[in-house]
Amino acid sequence: MKIELLLATILLAHATIGCASGGPTLQMTFKVTDESGGPLTKVPVHVVLFDHLNPGGGFGNPIYKEVICLTDTQGVAVAQGTSPDNKVCYEVKNLPSHYDEGGVYSFRSSSVSRWQPWNPTIELVIRPILNPVPMYARKLETNIPTPAHKYGFDLMASDWVAPVGKGKTPDFIFEVTGHATGVEDNDSKLTLSFSNPLDGIQPFNSINGSDFHSPRQAPLDGYQAKLELRRIRKPRQLSPDWIDDTKGDTNYFFRVRTVLGEDGKIKSALYGKIYGGFKFGGAVENCYLEIKPYYLNPEPNSRNMEFDPKRNLFRKLDQFHEVTAP
């Protein structure tokens, strides 16, 4: 998790109090371990505290300060400081052998001098970098040409299958149906299907806080042959009654290009993942479609989902489409 540090930062070793212009005192304990539960020693935990507003620019420019505390032989670090705001950002970052990990903690209340609860313990599991591999990985924005027609999309070519585009293999097959006559009248469905038996898709829960927030391997089973997403908003309908399956950040594993042997079992297949799900407009001409991003491991039968951003098989992507997260 990348946390932007605004303006001045103060780098402090161990658990000393950072400079502040006011606010209650706070104290936090961090327990830092690897995936096996072993403590990580002498690891810096970066804690970012709100300091004050610098006058100017409307309501003012927020100024933050940073406290760094080092873990001991038990993987424990204690941070102290003062802040007028109850939200605190924390992160372990820039370790050569592990992925960044972090989050945000909100204190519940404060007395005159202390944020409560006093000295909460936060456990940070830092995932090691094990076997990152090259993949086709990119953010995608495109358009489904017309409603009520099926269009194949080639993930390696990142294009629609001919004659609409230059793709050759219909890894994903998209179809948008329904109607959309305006912002207040949209009843549309996006259907994703596949070309081969045992191709499919399934959701997974992300590992919050880590830069590498998927499981290391895609599963062997549990793939569904079809995914349907709805967007429904009717005239004079109140917002709680709207339906939008594209809201949120659902993550998916998928399997494509599946080849079966004579015994009916999988002989070869490609596996991939999607962070953040699918976004689409309505059942209109050139309906927009977004996938931000998708990853495809080109090694047959490899379920490794640890992507190496330095070896993206898509070359020369611009900043709007490149992928930096593993």
Write the layout of secondary structure elements.
Elements lengths: L24 E10 L9 E11 L6 E10 L5 E7 L4 E6 L8 E6 L2 E2 L4 E2 L4 E6 L6 E12 L6 E4 L4 E2 L11 E11 L2 E9 L6 E5 L22 E7 L9 E2 L6 E10 L5 E9 L3 E3 L6 E11 L9 E6 L14
Parallel strand pairs: 1-9, 10-22
Antiparallel strand pairs: 1-4, 2-3, 2-5, 5-6, 7-8, 10-21, 11-12, 11-13, 13-14, 14-16, 15-18, 16-17, 18-19, 19-21, 20-21
Describe this entry's structure for a reader.
This protein is mainly beta and 326 residues long. It has two domains: 25-126, Sandwich (Immunoglobulin-like); 133-312, no CATH class. It is built from no helices and 22 strands. The strands form five sheets. Strands 10, 15, 18, 19, 20, 21 and 22 form a seven-stranded mixed sheet that branches. The N and C termini lie close together (11 Å).
Structural descriptors:
2 domains; six-stranded antiparallel beta sheet; disordered N terminus
How many domains? The number is 2
Level of helix content? Answer: under 10%
Please count the helical segments: 0
Per DSSP E runs of 2 or more residues, the count of β-strands stands at 22
Mean pLDDT across every amino acid position: 88
Q: Could you state the order of secondary-structure elements as H and E?
A: EEEEEEEEEEEEEEEEEEEEEE
Main pleated-sheet profile: 7 strands, mixed
Radius of gyration: 24 Å
Terminal residue distance? 11 Å
Strand content: over 45%
- Low-pLDDT windows of residues: 3-20
Task: Indicate the structural class.
Answer: mainly beta
Coarse shape: globular
User: What's the oligomerization state?
Assistant: single chain
